[in-house]
């Protein structure tokens, strides 16, 4: 399928989650206008570098515009609802100011759950990580989250570098993503208060 993309370093989206965006560049304002006129869908994908026109990673996520605020100066505030991960097949040669690709959707198992041991191991490392970073967390609310919302939600907002976040997005199943997230929290939490980011590069 043809997908209009918003390539943004450090931003990933998972199915079932939301991503707020502020669109101010003319090409991405055009992207939003086009999406609103068609199917309201925008594909989020990370570029491999910050250079304009950079090659793209292979996996991203299609989002549907759920809420949008059009501002007087042409900018947009919007919220994307994650629908499905996709695999890029090739980039298309287009006349639009925004980039477009051909991609295929990745089938998701919406019934995936963690074992009790996996969930407990994650929550234990998440508590240690939050304490080390000085984060305030409502653990009672965390305990009420289903496994997918918890693991994918933390993967989406975690303060890791772009390559690490991409690796989380590309993991094939929930258990593997949980294990990778535990490893990243473990190593990131041992940066001894520096500004360094864990990297898989």
The radius of gyration over CA amounts to: 18 Å
Number of strands: 6
Quickly give the structural class. alpha+beta
Task: State which percent range the strand residues make up.
Answer: 25-35%
Name the strands of the widest sheet in spatial order: 1-3-4-5-6
End-to-end separation: 30 Å
Largest sheet: 5 strands, mixed, barrel
- Are there runs of 5+ residues with pLDDT below 50, and where? 192-201
Instruction: Using the alpha-carbon principal axes, give the shape.
Output: globular
Q: What's the tally of helices?
A: 6
Kindly state the mean pLDDT as a whole number?
91
Helical content (DSSP H or I, runs of 4+): 25-40%
- Please provide the ordered H/E string of secondary-structure elements: EEHEEEEHHHHH
What can you see in these coordinates?
The protein has 201 residues and is of the alpha+beta class. Helices cover 35% and strands 25% of the residues. A 5-stranded mixed beta barrel has the order 1-3-4-5-6. This is LON peptidase substrate-binding domain-containing protein. It holds the Pfam family LON_substr_bdg. Residues 3-189 form the Lon N-terminal domain.
């Amino acid at each position: 399928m043809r997908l209009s993309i918003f390539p943004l370093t450090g931003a990933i989206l998972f199915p079932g989650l939301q991503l707020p965006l502020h669109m101010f560049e003319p090409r991405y304002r055009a992207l939003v206008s086009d999406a609103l006129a068609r199917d309201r869908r925008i594909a989020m994908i990370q570029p491999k570098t910050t250079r304009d026109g950079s090659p793209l990673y292979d996996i991203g996520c299609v989002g549907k515009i759920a809420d949008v605020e059009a501002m007087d100066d042409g900018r947009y505030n919007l919220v994307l609802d994650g629908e499905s991960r996709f695999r890029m097949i090739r980039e298309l040669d287009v006349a639009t100011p925004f980039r477009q690709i051909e991609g295929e959707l990745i089938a998701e198992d919406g019934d995936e759950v963690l074992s009790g041991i996996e969930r407990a191991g994650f929550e234990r490392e998440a508590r240690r990580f939050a304490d080390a970073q000085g984060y305030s967390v409502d653990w009672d609310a965390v305990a009420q989250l289903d496994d997918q919302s918890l693991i994918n939600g933390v993967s989406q907002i975690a303060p890791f570098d772009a390559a690490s976040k991409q690796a989380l997005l590309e993991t094939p199943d929930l258990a593997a993503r949980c294990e990778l997230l535990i490893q990243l929290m473990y190593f990131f939490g041992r940066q001894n208060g520096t500004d360094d980011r864990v990297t898989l590069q």
